[in-house]
Amino acid sequence: MFSDIAPTYDLLNRLLSFGIDRIWRRAAVRALIDGLAFDRPARFLDLATGTGDVALAVRRRLPEDGGVQIVGADLAFPMLAIGRRKAEGRGAGVGFLQADALSLPFGEGAFDGAIIAFGLRNLEDRPAGLAEMARVLRPGGRLVVLEFGAPRGLFGGFYHFYFRWVLPVAGRIVSGHPTAYTYLPSTVSDFPAPGELCAMMGEAGLGEVRNRPMTGGIVQVYSGVRLGDA
After folding, report:
1. 88 backbone φψ class: left, alpha, beta (φ>0; ψ -120 to 50)
2. Is the dihedral of CA 6, 8, 13, 19 positive or negative?
3. CB-based contacts of 183: which residues, under 8 Å, 6+ apart?
4. What is d(CA 59, CA 87) in angstroms, rounded to the nearest whole number?
5. 28 and 117 in contact (C-beta within 8 Å)?
6. pLDDT (tens digit, 9 = 90+) per residue, 131-162?
7. Yes or no: domain 6-151+192-226 corresponds to CATH 3.40.50.150
8. Where are the domains positioned within the chain?
């Protein structure tokens, strides 16, 4: 499915979020990098990278001469191909590879930080995915999860109407895919509440777990630090 919608993925993200998705991603990248200490060239993992927007945002946030390495990983090869094209000439130190989030091809402690934006809800086994992301972090390394939430009140009513009725129709028209943007609301409604996900992150071996709602709770930025001695 994600391979099928790759050509229109970026356009639909901008249109359907009214451009706010860029603000959300930048906030998640700040949560990943700001205050994170490392004494060597840093390595970051952007899991479920899609077309590489977050990986490139991480690159822009870091010094050009720092020897940084950012790996964007995804199962959908057409998404990765677009990411590689976007990185040409402006993504020094950014690489892309095809990988399964539940069985990452990296050693333990390989990364200083990891981020997954709008991808955790798509994993068949979320606790296993979180544990795998924690595994590839060094002790003290940080994981950030950016995901949709469930706003309440009057604003929440408008959001749920838009998400369930308007977004799937618009997504189908622009992408040409019959079910991709019907699938999105169903995965969001199934996603754990913030307290549940924070607990799940703790069980995966992360400490200092917290969440920050944005845009009235439409999205949540979660963060945690891998426990253990550095």
Report:
1. beta
2. positive
3. 1
4. 10
5. yes
6. 999 999 999 999 999 999 888 877 778 887 88
7. yes
8. 6-151+192-226
